[in-house]
């Protein structure tokens, strides 16, 4: 089939166009439509496909195969007919900002550290970049600063097709490898020169801003999470709203949030320590009321698994019998069972209680802990009917 005329590289971007339908056939999820010309960018090079409409049909996905652009549509189109195409340029512009921003940052990481970009994908919320070698945090921050300086300088981007292999071989560009057919080289003066099939801004300033929002070790290198342009602004707006909410809760200004959080953390740790001390005093009083030979079964309100463990530890020090403590939990009760008698093994009892009361848990012979999907009355009844000896 004849190669598709590609309108998606035009500047300024083409949002509306007319074309002739060459073929249409049923496919998984819709119909595959081929046109003589198209402004719909096909997925490739880490950039998602354009979306929009062809006549009355929605364009759901776009791919290219051997120079022919295939449009997955929501409805069939008649071969030989003329059709009006409309590209979602807001979606395209978002992807274009991300792609051009990635080139600027990748080029600088390559020149600064010799890092190759070994993986790139534009997701719904951020783009990811994988580097061939690890880059320290301070290096990433410096690369981000330089990338934004390139944006401020606002040089025009250059995109040129190379058909002469000798001319291409003589050209110095990032990620150079053997390529067949015409090769499109995209240059960002002062930042990058690389082969690319994606869409790009006309001037670096149109990227707006580049922000590395996170990074992590990935294989032998570093994975970066990046937002550019409108996404960077949206990210800042979310951060500002979160800072405002935290500041209001802590009665702190934006530039004093870290100190306020640390102060709050210190106060919470002190309150937690005081609460544990008070809880231990309460537990000691409960344990003091237990007589040797008793098998206490207690409900301890407002305590957690750690508190139950401490309480049972105090109880078992008072009696050689089974000691059980329960506390209200999200879907029933948390429990801790203990026995200090020589040779005691609570695990069979624990297993039986879990089976009877929809619970889960386990532990060592003398101590088990877990939760059951039952109330305190049911737990008491089970232990009464299953005396531990």
Description:
The protein is built from eight helices and 20 strands. The protein is an alpha+beta fold. It folds into three domains: 5-87, Beta Barrel (Elongation Factor Tu (Ef-tu), domain 3); 93-237, Threonyl-tRNA Synthetase, Chain A, domain 2, CATH 3.30.980.10; 274-385, Diaminopimelate Epimerase, Chain A, domain 1, CATH 3.10.310. A six-stranded antiparallel barrel has the order 2-3-7-6-5-8. A five-stranded mixed beta sheet has the order 16-17-18-20-19. Strands 9-10-15-14 form a four-stranded antiparallel beta sheet. The chain is elongated, with a radius of gyration of 33 Å.
What percentage of amino acids are in beta strands? 25-35%
Helix content: 25-40%
What is the CATH fold-level name of the largest domain? Answer: Threonyl-tRNA Synthetase, Chain A, domain 2
Low-pLDDT runs of 5+ residues are none
Overall CATH class of the largest domain:
Alpha Beta
N-to-C CA distance: 85 Å
Based on CA inertia axes, which overall geometry fits?
A: elongated
How many strands appear in the DSSP assignment?
A: 20
Task: Give the name of the CATH superfamily of the largest domain.
Answer: Threonyl-trna Synthetase, Chain A, domain 2
The biggest sheet, with number of strands, parallel, antiparallel or mixed sense and barrel status, is:
6 strands, antiparallel, barrel
Radius of gyration: 33 Å
Estimate nothing, just give the exact number of structural domains: 3
Please work out how many helical segments DSSP would assign: 8
Indicate the CATH architecture of the largest domain.
Answer: 2-Layer Sandwich
What strand order characterises the main sheet?
2-3-7-6-5-8
From the helix content, strand content and strand pairing, which structural class follows?
Answer: alpha+beta
């Amino acid at each position: 089939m004849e190669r598709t005329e590609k309108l998606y590289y035009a500047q300024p971007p083409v949002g509306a166009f007319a074309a002739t339908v060459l073929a249409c056939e049923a496919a998984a999820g819709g119909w595959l439509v081929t046109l003589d010309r198209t402004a719909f960018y096909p997925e490739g090079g880490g950039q998602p496909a354009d979306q929009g409409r062809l006549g009355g049909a929605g364009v759901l996905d776009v791919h290219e195969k051997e120079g022919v652009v295939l449009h997955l549509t929501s409805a069939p189109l008649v071969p030989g007919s003329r059709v009006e195409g409309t590209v979602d340029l807001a979606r395209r512009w978002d992807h274009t900002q991300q792609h051009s921003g990635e080139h600027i940052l990748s080029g600088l990481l390559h020149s600064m550290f010799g890092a190759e970009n070994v993986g790139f994908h534009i997701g719904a919320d951020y783009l990811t970049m994988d580097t061939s070698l690890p880059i320290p945090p301070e290096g990433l921050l410096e690369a981000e600063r330089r990338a934004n300086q390139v944006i401020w300088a606002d040089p025009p981007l250059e995109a040129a097709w190379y058909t002469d292999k000798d001319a291409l071989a003589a050209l110095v560009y990032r990620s150079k490898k053997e390529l067949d057919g015409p090769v499109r080289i995209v240059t960002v003066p002062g930042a990058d020169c690389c082969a690319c099939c994606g869409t790009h801004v006309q001037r670096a300033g149109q990227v707006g801003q580049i922000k590395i929002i996170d990074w992590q070790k990935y294989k032998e290198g570093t994975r970066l999470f990046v937002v550019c342009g409108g996404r960077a602004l949206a990210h800042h707006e979310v951060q500002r709203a979160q800072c405002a909410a935290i500041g209001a809760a802590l009665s702190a200004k934006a530039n004093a949030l870290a100190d306020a959080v640390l102060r709050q953390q210190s106060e919470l740790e002190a309150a937690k320590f005081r609460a544990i001390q008070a809880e231990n005093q309460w537990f000691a009083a409960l344990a003091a009321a237990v007589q040797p030979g008793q098998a206490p079964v207690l409900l301890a309100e407002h305590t957690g698994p750690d508190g139950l463990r401490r309480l049972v530890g105090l109880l078992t020090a008072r009696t050689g019998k089974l000691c059980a403590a329960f506390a209200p939990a999200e879907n029933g009760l948390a429990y801790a069972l203990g026995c200090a008698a020589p040779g005691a093994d609570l695990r069979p009892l624990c297993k039986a209680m879990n089976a009877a009361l929809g619970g889960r848990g386990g532990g060592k012979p003398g101590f088990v802990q877990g939760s059951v999907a039952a109330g305190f009355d049911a737990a008491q009844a089970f232990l009464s009917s299953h005396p531990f000896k």
